[in-house]
Amino acid sequence: MMENPRKLINFACGFTKSRHVETKYIFVTGGVVSSLGKGIISSSLARLLLSRGYSVTIQKFDPYINIDPGTLNPYEHGECYVTDDGHEADLDLGHYERFTDIHTSRANNVTTGRVYQSVINKERHGDYLGKTVQIVPHITDEIKRDVKLLGNTGKYDFVITEIGGTVGDIESTPYLEAVRQLRWELGRSALCIHLTYVPYIRAAKELKTKPTQHSVKLLQSVGIQPDILVLRTEKEIPPAMRRKVAQFCNVRPEAVIQSIDAPSIYEVPLMMHEQGLDSLVVEMTGTEKHSEPDLTAWNHFLHKLENARETVNIALVGKYVELQDAYKSISESLMQAATYCDRRLNLVYVHSEKVTEANVEEKLAGMDGVIIAPGFGQRGIEGKFTALKWCREHDIPTFGICLGMQCMVIEFARNVLGLENANSTEMDPGTRHNVIDLMEEQKSISNMGGTMRLGAYECRLKEGSIPAEAYGRELVSERHRHRFEFNEEFRSRFEEAGMECVGENPDTGLVEIVQIPSLTWFVGTQYHPEYKSTVLHPNPLFMSFIKAAIAYSEKKGKADA
Ligand code: GLN
Questions:
Q1: What secondary structure letter does DSSP report for 88?
Q2: Closest by alpha carbon to 525, among 440, 466, 441, 446?
Q3: Whose CA is nearest to atom 3 of ligand 1?
Q4: Model confidence over 418-476: pLDDT tens digits?
Q5: Between vectors from CA 331 to CA 150 and to CA 548, what angle results, nearest 5°?
Q6: From CA 554, how far away is CA 295, in angstroms rounded?
Q7: Which ligand 1 atom sits nearest the alpha carbon of residue 436?
Q8: E-strand spans in 246-403?
């Protein structure tokens, strides 16, 4: 008999019974400057509401014209995050998932480009019945439709919507107009949290609230009265100053909350809870009260984070090391795993373009483990090969991710199999030894955006391999973002010489994982395990890698003693 699809959806979302709820919409806007941490505040609020037993989702609206960040250079926008359903998303969705364990999707990240594309498609289709298509109401209606898409499923008590950019930006204007209209239509079921900055003027030894007042005025001038203000600050904001902000900005005094710089972003939910952010949201939206949040598991993690004394030293070899946001999910995954192993992570970024035969020892000898990063294109690739050769010859725990795995294969082909100039056809389309090659289904593709092999696919693990031991399962599902793959034609030569394929796609046979079993921990994954590692559920392969790194450092320590 067919399963009831509704039941299946509910099961996938963690519900035990089917129900329909009245969804409350929380909008998070930002003012004064960018990079104040709207994503962290949104994620923290989501964590608190989830821990009180509500069902929650978070979405991000980005005011740029790109359809998605997939075509953006990491220098522009940091890491491109990937969801289960294969959406190339803003890195804030990574924060959302790491804080909440919610699996996000294409519906959780909308850009101006997507909004316009949809409106223009409708116009071409004749859906507007001869009307002039305008920003208001057509673009704003489209935004409103997207805002409510997840809420309309009836599954969520709260939909938190983060509006990218800063109030006053030309690009943000249609979003703010949509928020204004929604607040009017939804009444108490919608609420606006505005995040601003309170600078500390060192010379005057004073905190200044004027930028906050101006930013709230700007918001009011487009018809939005914020309900809650979160003030980002380096120093404690005195109660009298908060009362002043409340008075100037028409906000209740207890709804002026400070977000002071914290040693870890994972402390922010606790800081928000102490000041009553979650209670305020529940009360102001007239939501049925649930018990206080159960943060036991979260606090357990924080306790470990704060109390770890010994360090684990990991090098990340990549070409975007000047911008650490480019490897955000990897660095967070390493930190989570290190924390659960009671270690402080010392992550050393090594610029792959600067690694040479002459300096590789100096760069890597003090490390307990090495990550070879994902990436695209030729730049920095030779440094990755040099690092890998050194790691392989010194049996140091080494983890190659996506391009990093492909580099493991190429280095092995060149230096162990003796296949001269072995390469990926991405770097050398004419190579005779194309050990990494373009996937068949990619050969006819010319558009760049959204056309890679993206999202979650299954991988079958070989019994007894490191990944099989780590996951404790035979079948896993992990996320992907690539065009090239291990070339099956060479497989037997690799396996005979000691590099094994220990994970493959059960349907297509695509090689997902390579391992050198004679080495302690030398594993490369075509997939990106970092996208599914969260604070409460660190990825097993990162856990296994960090444990191996710790064991290696202890062995090294003994040998040095
Ligand atoms: N450039 C490689 C490919 O497209 C690897 C991609 C990655 O590291 N995400 O297959």
A1: E
A2: 466
A3: 482
A4: 999 999 999 999 999 999 999 998 888 888 888 899 999 999 999 999 999 999 999 99
A5: 120
A6: 33
A7: 10
A8: 256-260, 311-318, 344-351, 369-372, 398-401
249 is catalytic: no
Q: Ligand 1 centre and the CA of 485: distance in Å? A: 9
The question of whether 459 is a catalytic residue gets the answer no
* Secondary structure of 469-509 as H, E, C letters: HHHCCCEEEEEEEECEEECHHHHHHHHHHCCEEEEECCCCC
How far is residue 270's CA from residue 276's CA, in Å, rounded to a whole number?
10
The answer to whether residue 411 is catalytic is: no
398-426 CB burial, b ≥16 within 10 A, e <16: bbbbbbbbbbbbbbbbbebbebeebbbbb
The H or E element that residue 11 is part of is helix 5-12
The rounded distance, in Å, linking the Cα atoms of 369 and 334 is 11
**Residues with beta carbon inside 6 Å of ligand 1?**
374-376, 402-403, 426, 481-484
CA 86 → CA 83, 98, 453, 480, 538, distances in Å? Answer: 5, 18, 8, 8, 21
Give the atom of ligand 1 at the shortest distance from the alpha carbon of 452. Answer: 4
CB distance 159 to 287 below 8 Å:
no
Residue 431 · residue 408 · CB < 8 Å: no
At 216-245, the pLDDT tens digits run 999 999 999 999 999 999 999 999 999 999
Residue 128 pLDDT exceeds 90: yes
The one-letter amino acid at 351: H
302-358: pLDDT as tens digits: 999 999 999 999 999 999 988 889 999 999 999 999 999 999 999 999 999 999 999
User: Ligand 1: which of 316, 483, 527 to mutate, judged by most atoms within 8 Å of the beta carbon?
Assistant: 483
CB contact at 8 A, 435 and 487:
yes
Question: Relative to the CA of 402, which ligand 1 atom is closest?
Answer: 8
Distance 405 CA to ligand 1 centre (A): 9
| Closest C-alpha among 31, 86, 95 to residue 58 | 95
491 phi, psi to nearest 5 deg: -55, -50
Look up residue 153 and give its two tokens. Answer: 């499923």
Task: Please identify which of the residues 192, 341, 402, 501 carries the catalytic annotation.
Answer: 402
Please give the structure tokens belonging to residue 62.
Answer: 């980005």
C-alpha pair distances (Å), 217 with each of 63, 161, 220, 236, 393: 21, 21, 5, 24, 63
> Which atom of ligand 1 lies closest to the CA of 404?
8
Please state, in angstroms and rounded to a whole number, the distance separating the CA atoms of residues 385 and 407: 6
Instruction: Render the burial of 359-369: b for 16+ CB within 10 Å, e for the rest.
Output: ebeebbeebbb
For a mutational test of ligand 1's pocket, the pick from 81, 329, 402, 443, i.e. the residue with the most ligand atoms closer than 8 A to its C-beta, is 402
Token pair listed for 185: 């239509």
- pTM confidence score: 0.92
Q: Ligand 1, residues 372, 484, 486: which to mutate, most atoms within 8 A of Cβ?
A: 484
Please give the distance, rounded to the nearest whole angstrom, from the Cα atom of residue 332 to the centre of ligand 1.
Answer: 20
Ligand 1: centre distance to CA 200 (Å): 43
